[in-house]
């Protein structure tokens, strides 16, 4: 049996066809030679070797990727590549070794060559910060916004070419979007591929770019939109506006626009989820005797009773006077936290009346300014004096 060497074989010469032969011409030449040198027809050992070469040549030239390697000066069936063709050394088993390298460079595992990258690609998402008052986040609002994004070029409708012109196939890569080279290493032949530097991997060029977008298919502009804010949104939430983001290169589908809500602090109310909280100061006498307060909520006025004897830090709850629930029905609650205010200054008459009131309740109130007053008695109590 003849040993195959590392020199690239002339597969075109084996089949007797030219390098420009079509697939049909290669197939006809193969069938003609196969009938002539088939072992069942021609038992000559030399004919059997010839038949193996014919099969190998047809395997290579009928496969576009392998034929491309031959056109670049390589041999996809060389020993360093990992095996012979059908009927050769190793039998008629699958093509291994070199095929793995081909898959790595051409994406064979994905079912085909990588090919040129498309000019039209999806656009990116965009995000916009929107500040709203508590009333707007609570009850919803239609807010005008200004967006600065890339939009479709109306001059070329995204094509990127000037009027009356078209894309041209890249002459450097023949429209493949990449250029390939074959290198012989100690591991065998290695095919490397890199994006075409002339067309940047697109496989086409723009001889006459659109004067408006310079061939990008999109332009940046500022536009006004209205976003509908639903009732009950919270600080930090995002509202998605489909396909209102960046238009992609080549007029690709626009991404989404996300409006991020930022709620301004309120002068009176603080918010925790859908509940509202506020603080109201009441005089000491009102807390002791009881009173009625008028509370202005976000959308109404409510009257609440402060019961006699209310203590500092007490809380009143107004049901369903908070923020509407974003999902579902109903509202949160409003919590009124009471701060009881003690007078800081009393005139002589007010002090006398307050002392009289303390006596009626059996509460001893010491004179702070007299010797042996309250603090003195407290000191004596700690020191163990009677």
From TrEMBL:
Zinc finger (CR-type) stretch: 140-222
Subcellular location: Cytoplasm
GO terms assigned for molecular function: ATP binding; heat shock protein binding; unfolded protein binding; zinc ion binding
Binding note for cofactor: Binds 2 Zn(2+) ions per monomer.
Annotated residues for binding of Zn(2+) 2: 170, 173, 196, 199
Superkingdom field: Bacteria
InterPro entries in the record: DnaJ, DnaJ_C, DnaJ_domain, HSP40/DnaJ_pept-bd, HSP_DnaJ_Cys-rich_dom, HSP_DnaJ_Cys-rich_dom_sf, J_dom_sf
Principal place of residence: cytoplasm
BP-aspect Gene Ontology terms: DNA replication; protein refolding; response to heat
Function recorded in the entry: Participates actively in the response to hyperosmotic and heat shock by preventing the aggregation of stress-denatured proteins and by disaggregating proteins, also in an autonomous, DnaK-independent fashion. Unfolded proteins bind initially to DnaJ; upon interaction with the DnaJ-bound protein, DnaK hydrolyzes its bound ATP, resulting in the formation of a stable complex. GrpE releases ADP from DnaK; ATP binding to DnaK triggers the release of the substrate protein, thus completing the reaction cycle.
Subunit structure: Homodimer.
Protein name as annotated: Chaperone protein DnaJ
Native source species: Micromonospora narathiwatensis
């Amino acid at each position: 049996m003849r040993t195959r060497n590392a020199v690239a074989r002339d597969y075109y010469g084996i089949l007797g066809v030219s390098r420009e032969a079509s697939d049909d011409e290669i197939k006809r030449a193969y069938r003609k030679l196969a009938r002539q040198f088939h072992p069942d027809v021609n038992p000559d050992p030399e004919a059997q070797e010839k038949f193996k070469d014919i099969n190998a040549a047809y395997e290579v030239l009928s496969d576009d990727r392998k034929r491309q390697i031959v056109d670049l000066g390589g041999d996809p069936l060389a020993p360093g590549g990992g095996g012979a063709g059908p009927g050769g050394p190793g039998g008629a088993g699958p093509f291994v070794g070199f095929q793995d390298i081909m898959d790595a460079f051409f994406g064979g595992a994905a079912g085909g060559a990588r090919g040129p990258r498309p000019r039209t690609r999806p656009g990116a998402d965009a995000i916009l910060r929107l500040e709203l008052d508590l009333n707007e986040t609570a009850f919803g609002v239609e807010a005008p916004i200004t967006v600065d994004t890339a939009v479709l070029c109306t001059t070329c409708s995204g094509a990127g070419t000037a009027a009356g012109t078209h894309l041209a196939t890249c002459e450097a890569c023949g429209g493949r979007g990449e250029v390939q080279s074959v290198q012989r290493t100690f591991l065998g032949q290695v095919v490397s591929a890199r994006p075409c530097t002339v067309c940047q991997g697109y496989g086409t060029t723009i001889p006459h770019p659109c004067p408006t977008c310079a061939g990008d298919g999109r332009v940046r502009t500022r536009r006004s939109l209205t976003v509908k804010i639903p009732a009950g949104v919270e600080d930090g939430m995002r509202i998605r506006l489909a396909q209102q983001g960046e238009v992609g290169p080549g007029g690709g589908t626009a991404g989404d626009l996300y409006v991020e809500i930022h709620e301004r602090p309120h002068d009176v109310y603080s918010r925790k989820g859908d509940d509202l909280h506020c603080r109201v100061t009441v005089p000491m006498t009102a807390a002791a005797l009881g009173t009625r307060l008028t509370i202005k909520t976000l959308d109404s006025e409510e009257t609440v009773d402060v019961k006699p004897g209310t203590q500092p830090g007490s809380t009143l709850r107004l049901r369903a006077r908070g923020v509407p629930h974003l999902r579902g029905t109903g509202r949160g609650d409003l919590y009124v936290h009471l701060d009881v205010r003690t007078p800081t200054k009393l005139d002589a008459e007010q002090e006398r009346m307050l002392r009289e009131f303390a006596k009626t309740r059996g509460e001893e109130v010491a004179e702070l300014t007299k010797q042996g007053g309250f603090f003195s008695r407290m000191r004596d109590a700690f020191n163990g004096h009677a």
